Amino acid sequence: MTGTLYTIGMGPGDPELVTLKAARILAGVPVVAFFAKRGRVGHARSIAASLIGAGAAELRFEYPYTTEIGHDDPQYRVAMDCFYGKSAEAVAAALDGGDDVALLCEGDPFFYGSAMYLFDRLARAYRSETVPGVAGMSGCWSRAGLPMVHGDDVLSILPGTLDEADLVARLSGAHAAVIMKVGRNLEKIRRALELASLIDRAVYVERGTMSGERIVPLRDLVTPTAPYFSMILVPGRQGVR
Ligand SMILES: C[S@@+](CC[C@H](N)C(=O)[O-])C[C@H]1O[C@@H](n2cnc3c(N)ncnc32)[C@H](O)[C@@H]1O
Q1: Which domains does the chain have, with CATH numbers?
Q2: DSSP annotation string for the chain
C-alpha cells in the first residue's frame, strides 16, 4: 500500500505554536520533506527540530534560486517548475515505497504556503491529509498586541508584490489590512499606505514569534528594505469595543 502525504502547517516560528496533531504526526512518520534556501537549514525544518522522530529520513529540497534572478524571468519559471517536479518525484517515490511523508510548511500550508507546489502535484494521486497551522499573520498580530478586526470589519490581505497603484486602490477605504512579502517592496508599500492615509496605523513586524523579533510603528522604521520574514499590520477599529 502506498503511503499518506501529510501536509503540515508549522506555525509562525515559535515551536510552542505547533499543533498537537502536527507534533503527533511528526513523531511517527518515517520521512520528512521540506524546502530550504541555499545553505540554510530550512525554516519549517528548524521549527520541527525537536519534534521529528529519531531515525526519520529527510528529503531536503534546496531552492535553485532565491533572489539571484527576477521571478518574472522565464529562466526562473523553467528552473522552478523543474525543481518542483523533481521534488514531487522524490516524495512520490517514498509514498510508492509505502512510507508516509510529512511535508513541512511555515505557517498554514494553504495560505501562500510553499508546500502547495508539491500538494498540487501529488494530492490527487495519493492519500492526503492537511494539518492547518497558525498563520504567520496570527502570530504577528498576537505578539504586537493588535486586535485586528471585529464585528463587520473587513480584513484585506495583500501581497506587497502588487504594484503601487493596485496597493493604493485596495488599501483605500480598507478597515484593516495585512501586507505580506514586504522585503524589497517596503518603500512602495510605505508610499501606498501614505496615499491611502493608513501610514499612522501601520505596524511593522519582523520575525514574529521567533528569535530576533522586532515590532515597531512603520513610521519609526528607517531601513529601505526588510527581510523575508516581515509583514505590516494595519489594525481595524481603535479603542474599546
Ligand atoms: C510565502 S509566505 C508564507 C505564509 C505562511 N504560509 C503563513 O501561513 O503565514 C511568506 C510571507 O509570510 C510572512 N510571514 C510568515 N511568517 C512570518 C513571521 N513569523 N513574521 C513575519 N512575517 C511572516 C512574510 O510576509 C513572508 O514574506
Answers
A1: 4-134 (3.40.1010.10), 137-234 (3.30.950.10)
A2: ---EEEEEE-BSS-GGGS-HHHHHHHHH-SEEEEEE-TTS--HHHHHTTTTSPTT-EEEEEE-S-SSSS-TTSHHHHHHHHHHHHHHHHHHHHHHHTT--EEEEESB-TTTT-TTHHHHHHHTTTSEEEEE----HHHHHHHHHT-----TT--EEEEETTS-HHHHHHHHTT-SEEEEE--GGGHHHHHHHHHHTT-GGG-EEEESTTSTT-EEEEGGG---S---SSEEEEE-SS-S--
